[in-house]
């Protein structure tokens, strides 16, 4: 099990979009197939509409990698959960979780970069590079990949 942060529970599979006290949650099923990454990227764009391009781009890339891994290594169903929170102190926190029906092999002890000529295998290395915290838990009855992106409030130029 890779675990950079164990304090976050798994998303509850289902569908919905709720807005409550500075938090927005998007939960959606993903197709179990090659379109999983594309659908996941589009869902993240909807959930993070209006955010800075840097966090949106990072979130879309991470989500694409997690959805691709879930399809390639897991089993149905695939579920995406995106939590967008605006803390009272400002800034933005985004948590992305992709779950699947499970796999028969354990999570790697750490993400390993593939050889230079490899065409795949960079997903978790990308997630580790872009996320502020992340975890991967695998099992025969379910796999959960989770990460957090945080952006602090920007100081105004007047106070600098």
TrEMBL record:
GO terms for molecular function: ATP binding. Pfam families: HATPase_c_2 (PF13581). The keyword Secreted does not apply. Keywords: ATP-binding, Kinase, Nucleotide-binding, Serine/threonine-protein kinase, Transferase. InterPro entries: Anti-sigma-factor_SerPK (IPR050267), HATPase_C_sf (IPR036890), HATPase_dom (IPR003594). Residues 37-145 form the Histidine kinase/HSP90-like ATPase domain. It comes from the Bacteria. This is ATP-binding protein. The lineage of its organism: Bacteria, Bacillati, Actinomycetota, Actinomycetes, Kitasatosporales.
